[in-house]
Amino acid sequence: MSATSPGVEGAHIVNADLRETTKYQSHSEETRGTTHDRFRENGGQTIFVQADVTKRQSVEDAVQAAVKEFGRVDIVVNNAGITFESRDLRPVWDVPIETWETTQSTNSTGVFSGIKYASAHMLKQDPHPSGDRG
Asked: What three-state secondary structure class fits 77?
C-alpha cells in the first residue's frame, strides 16, 4: 500500500506481510535489514504492518494502518502469492484439497480483499487536484 507524498518515488510505503524479514534471509540482500529499512535508507517513509492476506480482517486492518499513518491510500500492490508446487512436490491428483484452498485463499481471495478494502477507502477520501481519489 502506498500513500502519495514525499519519499521513495513520491510515496509513503506500507510493507504488509506475514513477517518483517524474508523467510530466506540468509540467502538474500535482506541480511542487512528489512525491506522497509531499505526504503528508509533511500529517504522513504515506510512502516511494516503484519498482515495475512488469507484473512479479510487482516487486510482491512492493513488498509486502516496505512490511513492512520499516512492519511490516505492511493496505490495498492497486491503481490502476495504462493504456489503449492513449491511446498508440496507431487502430481496434482495427489495434492490435498487443503493445499489448493490455501493457494487460492492467498492468490485470489487475498488480491480481492486488497482491492475491496483499499478501493472502499479511496472512494471516501478527498480527491487530488486531478480528481483522482486513488
From this structure: coil
Cα–Cα distances in Å, from 53 out to 31, 45, 58, 82, 131? 25, 23, 7, 11, 30
Instruction: Give 46-97 pLDDT, tens digit per residue.
Output: 899 999 999 999 999 999 999 999 999 999 998 888 887 666 678 888 988 9
Tell me the domain boundaries of the chain: 2-124
**Three cell numbers written together for 60:** 482491512
- Which ranges constitute the DSSP H helices of 42-105? 56-70, 84-87, 97-104
- DSSP at 105: I
pTM comes to 0.79
At 42, phi and psi to the nearest 5? -100, 20
At which residue does the C-alpha cell 486502516 appear? 64
User: Has domain 2-124 been given CATH number 3.40.50.720?
Assistant: yes
The CA distance from 19 to 29, in Å, is 16
Contact 72, 3 (CB under 8 A): yes
The helix or strand, by DSSP H or E, that contains position 118, with its residue range, turns out to be helix 110-124
